[in-house]
Amino acid sequence: MKIFIIFIAVLCLSLISLVASASTLTSLVTNSQGEQLVADAYRRTLYVFDADLNQTVPACNGDCAEVWPPYLLTDQDAASLSGPLGKIIRMNGRQQLTYEGRPVYTYAYDRSVGDDLGNAVGGVWHSIVVGDIGK
């Protein structure tokens, strides 16, 4: 039993380090269902948008970006990306963080650490659940 607990602890730490050590640009938060979510450095939940799948520029612009602010990067941030983190260039030339190749956003109506009020909005916005990474 002790070995099993140690194994589970190591497995959890490995998943956490996959996200947390990838960059100081991301962190992990826990939502009200107990799921660990990928968040920004300020611990705001990050989301992906189905309309961005297989696109060369992010699909959320204008009014959409007012409600779903893109996670923008400085040149210094962009130079330090590794692992599942990358960047995409927006129509305005700004760099946006990607997670496993998908642009990421925050949600204007999330107010507290762990809020994921944007999850499943319109059936096209999704928080990034740590257990679902790579799916």
TrEMBL record:
UniProt-listed Pfam families: Lipoprotein_15
Record's signal peptide: 1-22
Keywords tagged on the record: Signal
InterPro entries the UniProt entry points to: Lipoprotein_repeat
Top-level division of the source organism's lineage: Bacteria
Protein name: Lipoprotein
Lineage of the organism: Bacteria, Pseudomonadati, Bdellovibrionota, Bdellovibrionia, Bdellovibrionales
